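Please decode residue identities from the backbone states below.
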């Protein structure tokens, strides 16, 4: 098995985002919490995120970002479904320079075919404050869907 990598995404409600990413082949583990970082000009504050540990020999970082676009509304500023506020904004936290370059390139590609530009911030990852145990794998533990995040299988059906 190759070395695993981390990816961190803000896609609104972290419960639904975690359930969404856990279904993707090559995702080894997930955890939810509030990430902090900087986008070079401001400190965006604490954003609800899912942090994904993945095997890049099975699923690429680029594929995870492609699924990220499909798993939430990247066109909505500080709003996902019923939730609003800067804590539920669309964000990609990068862990490496390569991830930063990929995220910026894939956002530009997304914007080139989108009716409106993504509001998604690309932020240098600084840290993660884990949510408590009851919030980890919440959907799995409670047997119901939370938030308005689709299944990756339905996102990739064409």
């Amino acid at each position: 098995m190759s070395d695993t990598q981390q990816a961190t995404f803000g896609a609104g409600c972290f419960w639904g985002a975690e359930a969404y990413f856990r279904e993707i082949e090559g995702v080894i583990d997930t955890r939810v919490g509030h990430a902090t970082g900087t986008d070079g000009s401001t400190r965006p504050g604490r954003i609800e995120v899912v942090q994904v540990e993945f095997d890049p020999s099975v699923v690429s970082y680029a594929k995870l970002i492609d699924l990220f676009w499909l798993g939430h509304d990247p066109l909505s500023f500080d709003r996902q479904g019923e939730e609003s506020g800067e804590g539920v904004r669309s964000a990609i936290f990068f862990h490496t320079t390569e991830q930063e370059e990929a995220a910026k390139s894939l956002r530009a590609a997304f914007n080139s075919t989108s009716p409106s530009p993504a509001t998604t911030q690309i932020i240098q990852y600084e840290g993660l404050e884990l949510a408590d145990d009851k919030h980890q794998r919440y959907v799995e533990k409670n047997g119901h869907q939370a938030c308005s995040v689709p299944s990756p299988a339905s996102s990739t059906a064409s």
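Observation: Residues 5-150 form a domain with the Peptide Methionine Sulfoxide Reductase; Chain A fold (CATH 3.30.1060.10).
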